[in-house]
Amino acid sequence: PAPTVNPVQLSGSNYLTSMYKSTGTWSKSWSKTRQSNTLTLKRSKSSVKLKARLSAKAKVYFKYAGHSYSNATGKIKTIKVSRGHKKTVYFKVVAENGKSRTYKIVVKRR
Q: How many angstroms separate the CA atoms of 70 and 76, rounded?
């Protein structure tokens, strides 16, 4: 008889469990199911460091306006914002099974 082969189950988890930030205040508390949020920086802060934390063996990609996605798995991304301006950034999480979820973060500086 032929041996029984059990297919490998690929994880479908495509959540950011948390987002590390070096400074700033979220407009709404962080939640893995909230896909849009605003981070406000004080006038004295010209940049913020962000790092996405994942729940599973997923990969995360990062982009901001006018640029293409780049691998951000395990990396800290520095976002620079001019005083009185804002910048929209995106973190796209791709699960092992290929399903993706995109998080939009607006970083604004007073």
A: 12
Residue 98 CB coordination number (10 Å): 9
Report how far residue 49's alpha carbon sits from residue 53's, in angstroms, rounded to the nearest whole number: 13
HEC profile of the chain: CCCCCCCCCCCCCCCEEEEEECCCEECCCCCCCCCEEEEEECCCCCEEEEEEEECCCCEEEEEECCCCCEECCCCCEEEECCCCCEEEEEEEEECCCCCEEEEEEEEEEC
**8's torsion region: left (phi>0), alpha (psi -120 to 50) or beta?**
beta
What would the pLDDT profile of 46-99 be if each residue is shown by its tens digit? 999 999 998 778 999 999 877 889 999 889 999 999 999 999 999 999 999 999
Q: Tell me the pTM.
A: 0.87
The predicted pLDDT at position 28 comes to 96
